Description:
The protein is of the alpha/beta class. Helix content is 42%, strand content 15%. It has helices spanning 18-30, 49-59, 77-90, 106-112, 119-133, 171-180, 191-207, 230-239, 245-248, 253-265, 282-293, and strands at residues 4-9, 35-38, 64-67, 70-71, 95-96, 98-100, 139-142, 147-151, 165-166, 183-184, 218-223, 270-275. Strand 1, helix 1 (18-30) and strand 2 form a beta-alpha-beta unit. 41% of the residues are buried.
Amino acid sequence: MKVRVGFGLGAGTALSDAGRFGEVVDQLEDGGWDSLWMSERVNGPAPDPLIALAIAAGRTTRLKFGTSVLVVPGRNPVLLAKELATLDRLSGGRMLPAVGIGAPDPLEHQAFGVTREERAALFDEILPLLRALWRGTPVHHDGPRFHLDGVFVEPTPVQDPYDVWLGGIAPSELRRVGRLGDGWLPSFITPDDAAAARPAVEAAATAAGRHIDDEHWGALILYAPDGVPDRLREGLAKRRPDVDITEVVPDSLESLRSTLEAFVARSFSKFVVVPVFDPDDWAKAIDTIGDAVLDLQR
């Protein structure tokens, strides 16, 4: 099992200054981190993930890149397939697409031109289309929303297969991971809960005639060394009233380390650590977190 640890910039990051962003990318590249992950929130300060990752790819040769997560409903599947294929091609096969249906936010629904109710059906139609388009051959598709007659995409991704990761912890989301995903990257979940939920994903994959690689199980872990903000605490209380927030959002380096170790002990191996707040000193924060967890990579 190959343990890998990436660093994520959350949906609330304000790191949009070209100089500071470049410094963070360079430090992750040089510091032994496996990957950089960018979140998407159209109505927030975070940079657009695909644009930011393209810039990061141009500065680096080793670091991989992920989206945590890229919203699919509301996007044109052909153009999205082209963008993700191009990023993988021009980065030499370093792109790690993780996609989802988007946050339950009315403003985001407006931005993407979708209703909350239609997001899941759109996702279920688009993701198989992306895979078909990445083959580089003409696609013929007559679906409820999209109609393609001989459309194809070039260049194709370097990676073959081009694995797509999904998140989510609700029963319907676990079934979707099994039916459509190549990897599972949930958040706000304890190691025990993740281990207990994994069989549901595997059962859904088996029912769909699929298999998820043993290396494709991970977790996105928010880290709050300065305390969990009230808004996040309140939101999690509604979403997970059964858990103490420090069980899913570590508030110290020791608890962050022990959380990752607990996931590894349960055969999860791919992680993204996301600071809840932008640190005052990015370089110090990246080094401090890295010193605590990067030796887990093997």
